[in-house]
């Protein structure tokens, strides 16, 4: 940040003028609780592992999106709890700056509801994501009440998604279902299989190895 003296034309006294840095970091407010943080990390890490061989997307949590038509970072910005942009380079970013990303907005947004943000997420942000971002898939989830809803942009307006027999909602953009599992929002494959975390995969491998050893089969030889 640069600070330069400037003379006040009325008083003739020099005062400091603060110029914001040109490439600022995301500056989102603290998360509501550790449960909200855990939920965001879960969505991020599971998708990054599932798409580990892909380099055409960007996923982030609690990161600012700057979208000023005048290319100013001091106005028109929002920080979704979790979002995914498709058709872009998979690289680290300090923030998502629309005019530096060929005009791309998120394809998918998930907001984690809380008492302090619920009204904004369901109204103001929903309108911005529909009318300005044109984000095709928008979801919200409350980890305390387990309220879960999703919308798909059709003819310029969000239409509510209907749950399947498992209570899961389809994300056309991700090619995955989202649904509540053990109190948290998780991904499910098109054939309704839970997308596991690395820890869950390790536990599955351990159980399989134990079963094979019960059958006198060395899992290391398979």
From TrEMBL:
Domain Putative restriction endonuclease as annotated: residue spans: 22-179
The organism that produces this protein has a lineage beginning with:
Bacteria, Bacillati, Cyanobacteriota, Cyanophyceae, Nostocales
- Keyword Nuclease (UniProt): yes
Kindly give the Pfam families that the UniProt entry links to this protein.
Uma2 (PF05685)
Stated name of the protein: Uma2 family endonuclease
Coiled-coil regions listed? none
Recorded hits in InterPro entries, A to Z, give:
Nuclease_put_TT1808 (IPR012296), Restrct_endonuc-II-like (IPR011335), Uma2 (IPR008538)
Q: Which residues cross the membrane?
A: none
Which SUPFAM superfamilies does UniProt cross-reference here? Restriction endonuclease-like (SSF52980)
MF term (GO), any: endonuclease activity
Species for this entry = Nostoc parmelioides FACHB-3921
**Entry keyword set:** Endonuclease, Hydrolase, Nuclease
Matches recorded under Gene3D superfamilies: tt1808, chain A
